[in-house]
Amino acid sequence: MKKVKVYKNFINGKWVKSHTGKTFENINPADTTDIVGKFQLSDERDVNDAITAAAEAFKTWRLVPAPKRAELLYRVGQRLWSDKEQHANDMTREMGKVLAETRGDVQEAIDMTYYMAGEGRRSFGQTTPSEMMNKFCMSIRQPLGVCGLITPWNFPMAIPAWKMMPALIMGNTVVIKPATYTPLSVVNLIKALEAEGLPPGVVNMVTGSGGAVGSPMMHDPRVGCVSFTGSTAIGRKVSAACAPDFKHCHLEMGGKNAIIVMDDADIDLAIDGCLWGAFGTTGQRCTATSRIILHKKIYDKFARKFVARAKELVIGNGLNAKTQVGPAVSEPQMNTVLEYMRIGKEEDGAKLLLGGGRVKGGKYNKGWFTQPTIFGNVTNKMRIFKEEIFGSVVDLIPARSYDHAIQLANDCDYGLSASIYTKDVNRAFKAMRDVYTGIFYVNAPTIGAETHMPFGGTKHTGNGHREACTQALEVFSEWKSVYIDFSGVIQRPQIDNQ
Ligand code: NAP
């Protein structure tokens, strides 16, 4: 039998076993006979060690000039680029998405690393005149200390890099808890940092469950910032844990994203976008398209063509170049998706147009494969309209008019991403204004964010912060306003100069 590799925690620059002495298995969701590796099943003692190391390392890392920190990040970006194919293979094995997409995931990590390295020579603040004579004002960013990062499994390297790189360039140190399903991609990211000379303690990784590792991390008073991406239910817990100490708390949570297709849209273009938006990454993206709102004039034509195209999607192991849709990440995730398929079938008025179950038979029995599933005639009263499914299920929703379509798009607890397909520029601009989300597309699906644009959502998707772009720096730093008085006398603003 093939020997399964055991991976350790990374604390204070060393790969160490957990205090528990226990490990958990990371299993390939496309082939559950394939054990990707064993990882440390850590607890609060390991978290404590990691935070102690990060707090100690912060004393010196914060003083390293930002352009020097950036040089390290540039080298890390290059190393990730050289090892991209191996990292993509590992990622497909551990979470199932197809190779083209896992290459994209690693590329996002590279893009963010380079982008944030650039901030090492920018991180601009303000210099501004004082209202007093012989006085000078400026604002500078200061780091927060130890940042706790809690990340999900659907973007196993990109999201950790989205958080880690801005934290590091700002002079913070990091403790990261990867998702239990995808620790290997974080190990690969950390190995790149280690190989390029990251000082001990600046980045630490502790694997294990959310309750045993994530929870003690977010409650520890030495942690100045928690950045979390995951479900809204857990995000609420993170928010409550951060509140008593007023920690910086950055939450990126669920989505229920809508594409509006108007009667003047290029239907074939919209179908391409909806297929990619709904079934790319097996629907396991926070920005996945899960509601397609169709103007009634094109509803039937769109539905017919869309179902025909979705039927052709190739489902299978993401390591196979022909595969377009991989498995669900795990058995529980598959069961959640199957449960929503059952709920959809029982919703009063909804019509199952395609799929509705598990893919079975032959090689499929080894993995957690669900059918691309389309429900028609969905209304805003239904659970499949309202709740995040996070799988290969999409709704078709008829709309009477443009205004009705906008109302339906906004009729949702989440506000991450939305899109409109139309050739009418006035409508496109109106929709851009009127749909209340953090991300909006015109004539493109709800997925496809780029690292130099702010990323995040409104309502139950976020708590007002944005990831990526320079907005990420706001999460991982605090402003300090500095006044330098070179007049040699006491000067009182708002009093002495009136
Ligand atoms: P999740 O269950 O909320 O888990 C996210 C992370 O939180 C994991 O590392 C998890 O650890 C950890 N966690 C679980 N319980 C915890 C607790 N009590 N205390 C502290 N940490 C805890 O979400 P997921 O299933 O991994 O990811 C899917 C969700 O993420 C979807 O809702 C999706 O929309 C959202 N998402 C949002 C964005 C965005 O940018 N808005 C991006 C990607 C995904 P374990 O892995 O050990 O459970």
Polypeptide structure, described:
This protein has 498 residues and is an alpha/beta fold. The protein has 2 domains: 9-253 and 462-481, Aldehyde Dehydrogenase, Chain A, domain 1; 257-442, Aldehyde Dehydrogenase, Chain A, domain 2. The protein is 37% helix and 21% strand. It has 15 helices and 21 strands. The chain has helices at residues 44-61, 66-82, 84-95, 99-119, 158-169, 183-195, 210-219, 232-242, 267-279, 299-311, 331-346, 383-386, 402-410, 425-434, 471-475; strands at residues 9-11, 14-16, 23-27, 35-40, 127-129, 135-143, 146-150, 173-177, 203-205, 223-229, 248-252, 257-261, 289-295, 351-354, 373-376, 393-399, 414-415, 417-421, 439-442, 458-459, 477-485. The strands form 6 sheets. It has a 7-stranded mixed sheet, sandwiched between helices. Strands 9-8-7-10-11 form a 5-stranded parallel sheet, sandwiched between helices. A 3-stranded antiparallel sheet has the order 5-6-21. Helix 3 packs across helix 4, helix 4 packs parallel to helix 5 (158-169) and helix 9 packs across helix 10. The radius of gyration is 24 Å and the shape is globular. The N and C termini lie far apart (84 Å). NADP nicotinamide-adenine-dinucleotide phosphate (NAP) is lined by residues 150-155, 177, 179-180, 209-211, 214-215, 229-231, 234, 237, 252-255, 286, 388, 390, 416, 457, 461. NADP nicotinamide-adenine-dinucleotide phosphate (NAP) binds next to helix 7 and helix 8.
